[in-house]
Structures are given as C-alpha cells and as structure tokens.
Specification:
alpha/beta, alkaloid metabolism, EC 1.7.-.-, NAD(P)H azoreductase, 11 strands, Ergot_alkaloid_biosynthesis, oxidoreductase, about 280 residues
C-alpha cells in the first residue's frame, strides 16, 4: 500500500497531519487538494467530478474528509465514493465525529454507505478537537476577549489532539487488515469548558472565562462569524447535546490503534501557548 494512499482534505486540519504521519512511516501519499502545488499533490474536489478519475487512479486506500459547507455529507460525497470504488479503491478511512451515529446525519450517512458498499473501511469518530482552541473558532475569542463561548453548560468532553486522530488514521491506512468498524476517539480525560478555561488561565497567567450561551445564541454567533445558517444551527445543537452528557466518555482506542497515550489538555496548551499571545 506504500504508494497508493490518497488523503482527501490533504492540506486541512487532520489531513495535513495524516500526510506527515504517513511520511514518518516511510509512505508518500497522494495529497488531495483543490489547489495542487507539490509533487505528490492530486487535484481533488468533491464538488467537481472531473477530478475523480485522475485522483483515484492506482489508489488502494483513501482517507475521507467530508466537505464542511453542507450537512448533507453523503449527497456531497456519494459520486466521488462511487468513482473510488469503480477505480478499484479497497480501503476507506472516514473522519466522522463522536456524536454522529451510523445512519444518522452528516457523516453518519456516509458511515452507513461504507458498511453497505466498501470492501474495507474504518470510521474515526473523534470527540471535539483541541485545535478548536488554538486554530479554529475559539482561538480569537480566547486571545482577544479572554473568553470561550459555548452552550455546553457543565457538559464534559474527551477533547482530543488532531495529531492523535491523524496517528489513528495513518495506522489504519497502512494496516495489513482492518476490522470494518468505527472507533470513538478521545483524549485521556473528559473535562468541561470551565476546566479548559482554568487550564488556559493558569498557563497564560491571565483570566480566561467560559461564557455560557443558549443554543440559539450560539447559532447566531456562528452565523455572525460566517457559517451558513443550517450548519451553524447544527453545530450549536451539538453543544446542547454536550450539556446533556452526550460526550462525557473516555475510550482507549487511540492507544489501541497507535500504541501511544493521547495528549492531555495541559500538554496541548503548553505546546501551543503562542497561539493565544
């Protein structure tokens, strides 16, 4: 499988890390991107079927990252998935989410499609990314407003570093066999946003607060930052589920798949301290 792995979303949050993890294993994957620049880049766009044939040619395993601008993940991906099967792709490793059950919304529908159609498949269902604090929507409010805005109340989450997710994906892409199953991925502990705020406060040496919003207020905030209304409301609803305890769990799947203990929130904050300065 050394030369026949395609990483879709190959320059994104997890995809770029999957590429690096594979390279560390001596594998040079094809990097699927809408704007290819490097030698191993392959032009790939879920919305452009003309990119499928060349991108999937000779590929045996693919890392799947769904488009983030729609809640209809299967609708956006199905023609590409069918093209992959037609091209002879055997193994699919899908990035989904811990709250997305098989057959449910978004990547849950892709999960069900893989079970019905893919010869070999794995679905990674990580908890919320630690990178949400350092690179995504929480970063600027933490840095500029000393605040984290959520609708999670006291709900706890097994926050996970994207590097640990990528390590799991890389392990499954190169494994001799896979079990055709899904994996809930978490960090080593389930914590609330209050604890995250306290950790940032201690490490940064200045007060960071957890500001509690309603689900509707959070949806409006997401929209004000540019997210489409349907997607903004879906994300906000996930916070409501967290408040009800949906993410309050810890698994050992990262260690089972990679042999390593996942990073803690303290380790993550210490390693990324410059993001909030």
């Amino acid at each position: 499988m050394t030369n026949t792995i395609l990483v879709t979303g190959g320059t994104g949050k997890t995809g770029s890390r999957v590429v690096e993890q594979l390279k560390a294993k001596g594998v040079s994957p094809h990097v699927g991107t809408r704007s290819p620049k490097g030698e191993n880049d392959a032009r790939f766009d879920w919305k452009d079927p003309s990119t499928f044939d060349a991108a999937f040619e000779g590929v045996r395993a693919v890392y799947l990252v769904a488009p983030t601008d729609t809640v209809d993940s299967l609708g956006a991906m199905q023609s590409g998935l069918e093209a992959a099967l037609a091209a002879g792709v055997q193994r699919f490793v899908l990035l989904s989410g811990s709250s997305l059950e098989e057959g449910g919304p978004m990547m849950g529908a892709v999960h069900a499609w893989l079970r019905s159609n893919a010869p070999e498949w794995s679905v990674l269902r990580p908890a919320w990314f630690m990178q949400n604090f350092s690179e995504l929507h929480h970063r600027n409010p933490i840095r500029d407003e000393a605040a984290i805005y959520t609708a999670t109340d006291d709900g706890r989450i097994g926050f996970i570093d994207a590097g640990d997710i990528a390590a799991c994906a890389a392990a499954l892409l190169v494994a001799g066999t896979v079990e055709n199953t899904d994996y809930i991925l978490t960090g080593p502990e389930a914590i609330s946003y209050d604890v995250v705020a306290e950790t940032l406060t201690y490490q940064l040496g200045r007060q960071i607060s957890h500001d509690r919003l309603t689900v509707d207020e959070l949806a409006e905030r997401h929209q004000s930052l540019g997210l489409p209304e349907e997607y903004a409301r879906a994300l906000a609803a996930m916070d409501g589920a967290i408040a009800a305890g949906a993410e309050d769990r810890v698994t050992d799947n990262v260690q089972k798949l990679t042999g390593k203990v996942p990073a803690s929130i303290v380790e993550f904050v210490q390693q990324n301290i410059e993001a909030w300065k």
